[in-house]
Amino acid sequence: MQVQRFDVGRLDRAKRTGAGGARVPGSISRTGVQTYTDSQGNTIREYRPPEEVFSPASLDSLAAVPVTVGHPPAGVSPSNYREVSVGHASDAPTARRKDGPVEWVDGALIVSDGNALRKVDSGDLAEISAGYTADVVPEKGIAPDGQHYDAKQTNIRFNHIALLPAGHARAGSGAKLRLDGNQEPTMFVRHDDNASLASAPKQLVKVDGIDVEKGSDTHVSLLERSRDAEKKRADDAAVALTAAQTAQGEMKAKLDAAETKLAGIDVNRLVQDELAFRARLLPALPKGPDGKPYDFTGKSRDQVHADAVGPAVMAEAAKLESAAERAGYVAAHLKIKLDAAGKTPAPLHTPTKTVEDSTSSTEKPKFTDKRADAFTASWGAGAK
Asked: In terms of pTM, does the model score above 0.85?
């Protein structure tokens, strides 16, 4: 069964980055037995063996995971990363450190958010908690340090690392923040620690899935962060709705204008005008390569004029200085070509007639002009 777990480790001294953030070495995860509470309120002691805590796949999943303030209820995903992230874990190799019977995974966190940095500097955020998933296998046993356990964690995969107030160390009293060499913040030990209480916590409330001291700066900060995130989502939704409504209004106005313009157009007159234009210029236009009539499809009237006078005329027109000269030059050549195409060809024959042969005295034979028959046949009249 795969479950989500939140475990706490220790932060050591912080060093400032060039951008003003803090690079904070920390003890992030450890071996041994840790106590959790299931959904029914039952206490479960889970063993985290070294071969799982330090497995290459587990350590690889830790590199560059987001750093958050508290645990986001559903973890960190691309959809909420910008809202919850205040930094990230370093992708540098982690170190393995032994502390008595417990072994720690040591790494570095890069904290970049100004508000989170102030909380770290003041000690309000004194611990780190690793958010991860693991497969929990029911298995009773005794850990090497003598502690009994009810289950064992395998396939540990990290999702994020949360900054927490002092006193929330599930991993034990070793999970504390040391920002300078002389002072350590006051902390208390959870019920799963073997040590006694160093100081009793004040009233705790749950925010974003974690317990924080009621009325503390951390409590207020988490509430403000949640409020700001909700407000931003509502503001973004309102802006998007206004933009959509504005665009819809603009489209309706354009549609109304187009309908008004169309209502005033005499479509029949436009069609007749176009047909007349094509009929007038067709005699001067070249035919297609297959002998079919000129294709007007997709051609503007300027293109039709250019095709009618030919590329040589258009090339000469391009040499003229003004648009008026070029237009007049093309129009004149077009008129010449249309006039030539519209002239009636000279007669090629005389009409069919009977010619008398004076050499015969008995019967007068009739002769037909064959050229006339051929011409009239070509025009569909037929020979008579």
From this structure: no
